[in-house]
Amino acid sequence: MEIIPKELKAGGDLPIILPGLGTAGFQWFVKVENEHCVEVKPYDYTVDSMRRDAGTSNDEVFLITGISPGRTTVTFEQRRVWEKDGQAINTKVFDVTVVE
Question: Does residue 92 register a pLDDT over 60?
Fold first, then answer.
C-alpha cells in the first residue's frame, strides 16, 4: 500500500478528494493516529458544484487542518456503512507533517 507524504502549516488546510461510491452504499471512514497535530472533517462541496446526473456518485472531500507541529498518519478506508468491520474496498494513507 502506497503511503502519500503531505506537509502543511499549523492553521493551514489540506483538501483530500476521494472517489465516491455513495450510490452503491460505500462511504469513506477516517482514522487519525495523532489527533494532537491535525483535525480531519468532511467538507460538503456539493453546494458549490454543478448538478450531476441521477445515479452518479459525488466524490467525498475531507479537510485536514494543521493544529500543531508534529507528524501523523491519516488513513481513509472506503466501505459500506453497515460493514464497518469488513474489509475496505479502497484505502488511502497519508503521512502528514505539520510545520510552524
Answer: yes
What top-level class would CATH report for the domain 3-98? Answer: mainly beta
Residues 6+ apart with CB under 8 A from 94: 3, 4, 5, 6, 16, 64, 73, 74, 75, 76
Domain extent listing, the chain? 3-98
What is the DSSP-derived secondary structure letter of residue 62? E
**Is pLDDT at 3 greater than 90 in this prediction?**
yes
Say what the pTM is.
0.85
**32, β-bridge pairs:** 74
CA end-to-end span of the chain, whole Å? 29
Residue 55 banded pLDDT, cuts 50, 70, 90? low
Amino acid at 89: I
